[in-house]
Amino acid sequence: MASAGIEKVRDWILGRHPERTELAEDVRLLDSRLVDSLSFVELVYVIEDASGAEIDFDSIDLEDFQTVAAIERAFFARGES
Amino acid sequence: MVSDLIDQDDRFRGILDRLTSKSIDDYYNPYRLFEWPASLPDDMWWMSPELTTTHGSEAAATLSQEQLFALSRYESINFYSLNVHGIRELLIEVVRRIHTTGFETPSEFFHHFIGEENEHMWFFAEFCLRYAGRIYRQPGGGVAIPSAPSPRVESLLVFARILIFEELVDHYNSRMALDEQLHETIRAINRIHHQDESRHIAFGRELVEHIFDDVRRTATDQELLDISSYLRRYMAYSFESLFNPQAYRDAGIDRPLELRRALLDAPTRAEAERRVFRKTLKYLEKTGIVR
Hints:
Chain B: InterPro entries: AurF/CmlI, Ferritin-like_SF, RNR-like. Chain A is mostly helical.
């Protein structure tokens, strides 16, 4: 069951692409340019807002942002392992 | 090629010669020019209040004078940090092109441009490190140039982005240089930057127009539309980068991300963005680069 937080992130991405109605968790967001370099910072802020985590820009690993599943694993799954 | 177009244009060649001479005549040693007091007072504006992101907002009305001063302090550190990152990105692109095919004619001025930008990056970084102990970060160090259908289009995006960034910054520099509420050290770095950037902006406007003329001869209508929409998005992105939640957090704001969202959605944002890019947008629309 997806958390409310990751749904906020998914909704934000879908909101930027009105031509899409759904977004599978394994779609490559950066490679497909659903999130491009101009919207990446905003994605980081949306994840911070939805997860309550502060993301250190210096230690960002782009793989953590490649798919909805990767974002959920990196920022919304703490304490559940 | 860009150089061929410049070589055929006596006016642009004349401008390049004048700007190069002016760079030589105005040359200064930035490492000796500024006075760097050990600290700057907390109880004063570090950025002109009307240039801060909260100016005129509902949020600003709820903050004390002390909080507004602190906000202006961290927003100024964000502004100079953006300069550091923006300059690094533009230096990489100009260094990549100097003395390469197509850029033979502007290369002489590129030497002055690169030298001056390096010095600007130094005094902005110095300010941040001395008075805040840090430079605010950007993810991945900066924003990549999107993949372009040809090297000409890529160069157009590169130099149009440089111009947009310089004009945005200059809007702030030219005002803060004259603002008597600000400390003399703050006014001085803004004044010197404004002085040098006037030359860079004059050069950038000519260069971008020439590259666009070159691109327009062979580009499809869709490619021209894509350039226009990308540059519009780049302007919005650049403006939004002034609203940094980390600066709000450092100034003691409780919910920095909420404040950023509220300010970006407020009517004051559209007005401020229009003011900042009034001249830039007029130029980009007049040349047909942005539709």
